[in-house]
Amino acid sequence: MSLEILQSIEQMEAKAEDIRIKAGAQARDMIKAVETAVSVRERDEAVTLRALYQSLLDDRRKQVEKKLESVHEKKDQERAAMISKAESFLDKAANVIFERVVNNGNR
């Protein structure tokens, strides 16, 4: 009877060891699966963040280009006004130069 009990205990210990080994293998498999899932998720999030960053960058670039266009238009208008003002003095300047040449001769 005590031999049967010892054999029963040994069988139970063997089963327990087998269960422990299987549990360890399952735990390692679960960890690998989770690590793989996390890696995939990180890559997906990185792609999403890059797309968001690019979108924000494009939006900001458009805003800056629009503002620069507005500044260029304003500067073009200012230049046109200055040219127009200068052109209005052109006839007067030509007359003044002509009169000086005529009045002062070839000095």
Plain-language structure description:
This protein is an all-alpha fold. It is built from 1 helix and no strands. The model has no long low-confidence stretch (mean pLDDT 92).
Short description:
96% of the residues lie in helices and 0% in strands.
SS element count, helices: 1
Number of strands: 0
Gyration radius from CA atoms, angstroms: 45 Å
Question: Which range best describes the helical content: under 10%, 10-25%, 25-40%, 40-55%, 55-70% or over 70%?
Answer: over 70%
Order of helices and strands: H
How far from one another are the termini?
Answer: 145 Å
Q: Note the overall shape.
A: rod-shaped
Q: What descriptors fit this protein?
A:
mainly alpha, about 110 residues
Q: What order do the helices and strands come in, and which of them pair?
A:
Blueprint: H1 2-104
